[in-house]
Write a structure and sequence with these properties.
single chain; alpha+beta; 8-stranded mixed β-sheet; 40% strand
């Protein structure tokens, strides 16, 4: 009976150490200023939100809730998020990246040129990521609309990370931000 109780700490330990596989799908239409974000953990859908950009704010609305949330893109929270992304960058394992685009300017020549340019730029970015994270499966799908004005991009990413690495990165980021904020108040006096 005592050995069964030992399974609980073992399970919690494995939960901290084993990586979770997250899948994020982001789609944004530049003409309509409208985007969606979908997050999944393994095969469980966590959330689906819609968003639009208004000045230096991001207006977010969940599918279930009609309430809008405005997120400022400047401020101390952004400093913490930037430092967190620096800390967690090397701990994330990229499993899959897909880029889908649907581009059209109304003119066939300009649509083809713009679509090709974006395809080349994304392929260069994917090449850089492939050199940094060699386990990634990367794909680019580009559709050119010759008679229609449309600029829509979509990104699918599947990454894995452990809870321990996430907590460690967040703690380190908050410590670094607090140290940088405390040093701003420090004034050195030279004689």
């Amino acid at each position: 009976m005592q050995s069964l109780w030992l399974l609980i700490p073992l399970f919690l330990f494995l939960l901290l150490i084993l990586p979770f596989i997250f899948e994020a799908r982001v789609s944004y239409n530049f003409y309509k200023n409208f985007g969606t974000l979908s997050l999944k953990l393994w095969f469980i859908k966590l959330t689906v939100i819609t968003f639009k950009v208004k000045g230096k704010k991001l207006i977010v609305r969940t599918k279930n809730n009609a309430k809008q949330i405005e997120i400022s893109l400047v401020g101390p929270e952004i400093k913490l998020l930037e430092q967190f992304s620096v800390q967690i960058k090397d701990k994330i394992k990229v499993k899959k990246l897909e880029f889908h685009s649907r581009i059209g300017t109304g003119d066939a020549f300009h649509s083809a040129m713009l679509s090709s340019l974006i395809s080349v730029l994304i392929s260069m970015l994917w090449g850089y990521i492939k050199n940094e994270k060699d386990t990634a499966l990367i794909d680019v799908v580009n559709h050119t609309e010759y008679k229609e004005k449309v600029f829509q991009i979509s990104l699918l990413g599947r990454v894995s990370i452990s809870i321990f690495d996430t907590l460690y990165s967040f703690i380190m980021a908050s410590i670094i931000v607090k140290k940088s904020d405390s040093r701003k108040g420090y004034v050195s006096v030279k004689n």
